[in-house]
Amino acid sequence: SGPAPLTVTFDASESFDPENDEFRYRWRFGDNSPEVIGTDQAVVSHTYSTPGTYTVRLRLRDHFLARREVTTQIVVGETGGNVPPTPVLISSGLMGPSPFTVQLDASRSFDINPGDQISQIEWTFGDEHDPVDFAQGAMTSHTFNYPGSYHGRLTVRDSQGKSSVEHFTVHVLSSDPAGVDFLAQANPSDPLELWFDNSVGLTTAPIEYHNFHWFYGDNSYARGRNQSHTYPGPGPYEVQLSAFDVLGQRYLTKKTINVQDTTSDLPVAIALNNYSPSVNEEIQIWLDTFDLNQVADFNLKWDLGDGTVLTGLGSDLHSISHTYTRNGLYKITLSLTNPENLTTRLETEINVYSGTPPLPLFIATPLVGQAPVEVSFNGSYTWDSDDQVTTWIWNWGDGQKSISGPYESHTYQEPGQYFPSLTVIDQAGNYATHTAEIRVLSEPPPVDNQPPVAEIVALTPTTGTAPLRVEVDAYNSYDPDGEIIEYRWDNSNGHVWTGPYYVDTFDQPGAHSIVLTVTDNNGASAESVISITVESPPEPENLSYSFWPPLPTMGEKIQFRARGLSGSQHTYKWTFAGQTEVYGQEVESSFAQAGVHSVRLEVYDGDHLVSSIADNLEVFEPTLPVAVGRISYVNDTGTVAAQPGETLYVRDLPAVIEFDGLRSQDDHSIGLKYFWEFGDSSSSRLANGQHMFFQEGTYPVTLTVTNDSGLSASVEFQVAINVNDIDCYHNEGDEACHQIEESIGNVIPVTGSPGEKVHIRNNLTVEYQDFSDIQ
User: Fold this and answer.
1) SS3 of 672, please?
2) For 281-300, how does the pLDDT look when each residue is reduced to its tens digit (9 = 90+)?
3) Which of 43, 274, 305, 580 is the most core-located residue (most Cβ within 10 A)?
4) Which pTM does this prediction carry?
5) Which fold has domain 457-535?
């Protein structure tokens, strides 16, 4: 330390490599001055001209990218206030073949403020293949199973809330030869503008590239990663891309791009026969399109996310099969390149399970509040049928995460709409995620806000003999001036659930209740209660049993409970088809195959058989839900609707479209999740509602429904909005208007004579004229 200007000499000449590898010095002086880098820079000097506190870093790195780092603080002049902590990252090698494990150590991080100390250390690994992409603690490790360049982050916080970040990159190499590649895609609204994407190179040789140089073939040049370029006109252009990898090796690729006058989107998507398969289960993947001939001469490239890459012509590779050998979340990418070297890229995800995945659920309180607001989270309602939950990962939706347990709290400082999620992982490595919505307001909710209306509809009888299974839904609930953001169910047995549909079994005779609480986007809530009357069995000796879940699937743990007999002296013996006998009033079992299986329960008092019951239990295969949807809009003449696969023609702007997916079905699920995509970069998770379009065009609309097993199904529509275009003509006295198939805009490709009437949209009829000048 000292007054400004202060010249400091740094000496690292005693540094060494245990394996005698040559290493490089890299000095950062903390004042935004240029770095000093080189193998001969062991001793350097630097002058600080401005008072302040500066963190000096020396990083040593060998040719395997293994590094060590030391830091120190330089105080120039007098400084005040809390100085953020200094992260110090020590790592093993950061480059190697997959699978590659990295050891990370931040235990030497420090804080120079008197009486202050580092209170929290967090790691993010940048590994999209692993749901546990987050860790806490001074020392950690992470295994990267797939080739790629992963950008991690170390965050250290002190007890005063100050934080600092240190970034690191891990390069996991593949056995493929290195190379660089790019995709070119035409802008749908301007076909002369091309979007260039070099990320495709990461799937061919998944290492980090730098110093990208683009030569567009029209005497134009650009430097940087992904680029866009507008060509002066149609024609062939030779595009060159050069880049350098992390080891300094240069790579070059060339492609001839045929720029067109027009462009059109391919009506294609990726389809799977099972989006939640088990490990080692073969799945079918195909290109879903109306006409396979349109892609027959395209070059297809499938990247299945587990290191498997398939290439070939569309005529041969439009349908493939694949088996994943490890559970996890995989991204499937398909690149379709036409003969002009223009590419369309599609993506989807698949979650591969080992056994039965857990069912996460948490309750957040409150859902709406004025910033800053502290929200409590209770994830103890999470359930796993065949395993135990070992990891709880909370993502608060504001850039912060936490690995802890089922109970947490978090404070949202800024107004906004947040979607916190809980990801739970069981002992088998299966994971699932539950998401809620939190609204943080900048000011108190409006005083004139109208509360929502809660309404319960019973789908099964609410009076009956124990055990009584009751199904209810809340689809008739609504908010008069906003939207409902949560449906919560509480029953007198202490069970809790969220969502518009609920089912539960009441085992005990007596009066019970189910309470529905709906909350709107301003925090107002309303309740509705339905009474349940459970009657005792007519005879105490009437032996029965209950089981959960009510619609079990193959491999799923089923909980059985014997009922009807009192007395602790009884012994309960269960016999399940093809299995050994088990004992107890409450037992668990599972069935490996779908079908009808025998269940026998015998109750003994000592050696005396008191009662017995034999029954059959149906076990189902996991099935896809059935997506059923409808879109419509109301015009002056009535309601116009479109079913899946149809096009809804609209002639008004703005266009208010009603969407309804409530008729979607699933035989073996408690409820469905809905996801509408409207083709204009907007979406909705409501089952039904309204959406507004503001521009003409043709929009693909997709409804995707997902059941509680994670299986999904979709249906598609189109909305075509075209306002004031001429579509037909008629002569005086004609009963019908003659459709014009080749009309473009407001131009009529027919001849006419004075006195003829021409009918255009919006019920406008005009005298025939030369329409060639109408715009």
Assistant:
1) coil
2) 999 998 887 677 888 889 89
3) 305
4) 0.47
5) Immunoglobulin-like (2.60.40)
